[in-house]
Amino acid sequence: MSHAARQRQIASASPQCEVCGAALPVRRTGRPRRYCSDRCRQKGARVRAIVNVMVGIELLKAEFAVEAETDWSDESHRVA
Ligand SMILES: [Zn+2]
Description:
0% strand, binds zinc ion
């Protein structure tokens, strides 16, 4: 399955609680709900905080990797 097809499938899926997967009522106006209850919302916020830290570490690692791989003698890196 292509990446685009997968994106479409996710977008068209009925909304589910991000934490427990319970079906959420579809809202036609305003922001779609992400959690079925305050309990799941709080748990989701904690999970997201942990994920954010992990993503931050990955970004830092990627940044250092790019720095190490960059060949500054290359013409294309010179500021005109
Ligand atoms: Zn839930």
